[in-house]
Inverse folding.
């Protein structure tokens, strides 16, 4: 019989959202993209779904940037860091 | 009370103008009230929605959502919040605050109607024109208070997310 777990096993003491982090992008949890309009958040969500990426748009946030006016926050197991850093996916006219 | 001013249509905002901002007030706003969204241009309130607390003894007694549009600019076409509501019917508006009467730390929108949790972040421009880099802020949500609309609204709720410095949150 396995010994009883007394410390919560290997689970962190706090849920992920309550832990301090140095980067908001967390592979397998969430990724952030900057866009020019709210409509582009929707379009990006639709495109990710069509690509089969398990990500959902959970939040959008206005920025003070005159060009990239919103941040889109996606969450899901297929989140990666710097998805659009790959120049193949980094065409500003894509959305 | 807290008033959240939101542009009816994002495309109406010009350089230097905010899409959304908040203000603490003593008396309720009324439709037609004028304000600035960051430049000399005058905007006015075209629609008001009151949100009431869901429980007793919440820090803020009333919250108003004031939709605003520049004076002299025709208000034609779909509003940005209504367009997003078709995509995300449960959407809610999140206001991160530190202290009553102080400026908000951030205002954002939840597609699923869930309050803001965890550590706040902002984003800074990078050398690449279409990339911004998330930057973590030293604030973490500690208490959430929910407000629901009294009349028809594009948002199912407004959450006031009270924050504390990260070090305090971890010590607690």
């Amino acid at each position: 019989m396995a010994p009883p777990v007394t410390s919560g096993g290997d689970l962190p003491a706090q849920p992920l959202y309550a832990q301090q982090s140095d980067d908001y992008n967390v592979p397998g949890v969430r990724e952030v993209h900057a866009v020019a309009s709210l409509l582009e958040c929707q379009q990006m969500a639709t495109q990710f779904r069509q690509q089969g990426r398990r990500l959902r748009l959970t939040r959008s946030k206005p920025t003070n940037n005159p060009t990239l006016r919103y941040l889109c926050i996606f969450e899901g197991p297929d989140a990666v860091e710097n998805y659009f850093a790959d120049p193949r996916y980094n065409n500003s006219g894509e959305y | 009370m807290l008033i959240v001013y939101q542009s009816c249509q994002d495309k109406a905002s010009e350089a230097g103008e905010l899409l959304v901002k908040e203000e603490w007030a003593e008396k309720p706003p009324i439709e037609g009230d004028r304000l600035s969204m960051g430049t000399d241009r005058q905007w006015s309130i075209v629609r008001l929605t009151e949100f009431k607390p869901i429980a007793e003894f919440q820090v803020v007694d009333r919250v108003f959502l004031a939709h605003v549009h520049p004076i002299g600019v025709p208000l034609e076409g779909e509003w940005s919040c209504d367009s997003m509501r078709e995509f995300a019917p449960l959407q809610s508006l999140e206001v991160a605050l530190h202290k009553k009467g102080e400026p908000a730390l951030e205002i954002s929108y939840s597609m699923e109607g869930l309050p803001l949790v965890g550590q706040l972040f902002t984003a800074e421009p990078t050398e690449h024109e279409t990339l911004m880099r998330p930057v973590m802020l030293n604030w973490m949500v500690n208490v959430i208070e929910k407000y629901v609309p009294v009349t028809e609204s594009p948002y199912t709720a407004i959450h006031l997310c009270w924050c504390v410095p990260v070090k305090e949150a971890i010590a607690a």
